[in-house]
Amino acid sequence: MGAGAARGVDGMTTVAGGVRAHARIVARADGRGGTALPVLDGEGPLALRRTRGSGAEARVVLVGAMSGPLGGDHFTVEAEAADGALLRVGSAAATIALPGQHKGEARYDVRLSVADGGELHWLPEQLISARGSDLHVTTRVEVGATGRLVLREEQVLGRAGEEPGRLGSRIRVRVAGRVVLDQELSCGPGAPGGWDGPAGLGGLRAVGQLVVVRPEFADAPVAARMLGETAAVMPLAGPAVLVSAAARDALRLRRVLDEALECVG
């Protein structure tokens, strides 16, 4: 461990610039028609809890055990669904990016892997960008040719009556080794001009994406269409579809994305 770093009681590393924390989930078929979790390991602010699932599903909830991410923090979450596994991951509450004592950018990295024959539903609660915060989120996903994925990302720019912090995010999805989506978003102070103008969010304060990967989309792709005035369904160059939406608040955004998931089947 480098100079200026200390190991906390839960394995979490604290360094001069912030906290480093890691969580990992591995789901495998248990041989009895269900899903086992041979690896369920979280530390510090990234606590993991298995909850009651249904059928073959294993369900995990990410519980925020501390405030954050704060300035200078670096959180990493990994989830893997092996062949025959069905894994659903959510979170107990919204994540709030805060400025903290350190002025550096905070990072939140998500790494998802779905093997052939596996299925992963990644459905965390909203990420709220509080005033003065600076957070970059990176989500990288690898899906096998016969893997299945539902990924939801929701971002709320500022709390009630508050201007947002700086928020950047990137989602990169590969299916069978082929990139089907590589998308970046930047909002808040210091973001490229126009992010909040008519060609951007137009004053709306909640934005979200839904990515669905299913093998059957290769032969029967989902048709492109609008969902109201601020949401769209777009088939991707592979067995996948992207739904992008913006709304006035988190409640309306969730409603749009839930309706979109029903529409894509």
Automatic annotation (TrEMBL):
GO CC terms in record: cytoplasm
Subcellular location per the Swiss-Prot or TrEMBL entry: Cytoplasm
Keyword Transit peptide: no
InterPro entries in alphabetical order: UreD (IPR002669)
This protein's UniProt keywords: Chaperone, Cytoplasm, Nickel insertion
Statement: the UniProt record of this protein carries the keyword Flavoprotein: no
Subcellular location, principal: cytoplasm
Example of a GO MF term: nickel cation binding
Function: Required for maturation of urease via the functional incorporation of the urease nickel metallocenter.
Subunit structure: UreD, UreF and UreG form a complex that acts as a GTP-hydrolysis-dependent molecular chaperone, activating the urease apoprotein by helping to assemble the nickel containing metallocenter of UreC. The UreE protein probably delivers the nickel.
Similarity comment: Belongs to the UreD family.
Identification of the protein by name: Urease accessory protein UreD
Species of provenance: Streptomyces ferrugineus
